[in-house]
Amino acid sequence: MGAKKILMLVGDFVEDYEVMVPFQALLAVGHRVDAVCPDKKAGDQVRTAVHDFEGDQTYSEKRGHNFTLNATFEEVEAEDYDALVIPGGRAPEYIRLNQKVLDIARHFAKKKKPIAAICHGAQVLAAAGVLEGKECSAYPAVGPDVVQAGGKYMEIPVNAAHVDGNLVTAPAWPAHPDWLAKFLMVLGTKIDL
User: Fold this and answer.
1) Homologous superfamily of 5-187 in CATH?
2) pTM for this structure?
3) CB atoms within 10 A of CB 150
4) Among 9, 1, 2, 34, which residue's Cα sits nearest to residue 115?
């Protein structure tokens, strides 16, 4: 299979690792990745947040890097893309209020194109109503969103990922190796080492 064109939906305070690592990894294996944010254009930046697990009842949050968008949200058409990536952090909570974000998620689900969501990214899928009957992992606090949207919340280790057809999900960034490997398999990406 040749290079895929992948759309990444981000927003301010997207989780730092969950946007940087997949963006760079997917580029490194030859795919094209267009990262967009509602109401922003190519060259604009989003601020990221670093979520860490330090023994508290929930994650801690610190300011991360600035991430530069390389495409303009208003110009993207879901039909032009082969796959969708939705990182976590705080961004999914507010970008899911944008109707075009929901329409994009619905397009990929309806067409059974590969979708990779991690951590809070499942909030977008739940809001779009595309989890009915699907098995979906997410950050545990998002489990109720998955269930309310008709999905089956998959409680898996923080370093694991889950595949249900075209949907590849994981609880948080410690799962990157497994999540990205499974997403690349769903994409049909072949890597010769």
Assistant:
1) Class I glutamine amidotransferase (GATase) domain (3.40.50.880)
2) 0.96
3) 13
4) 9
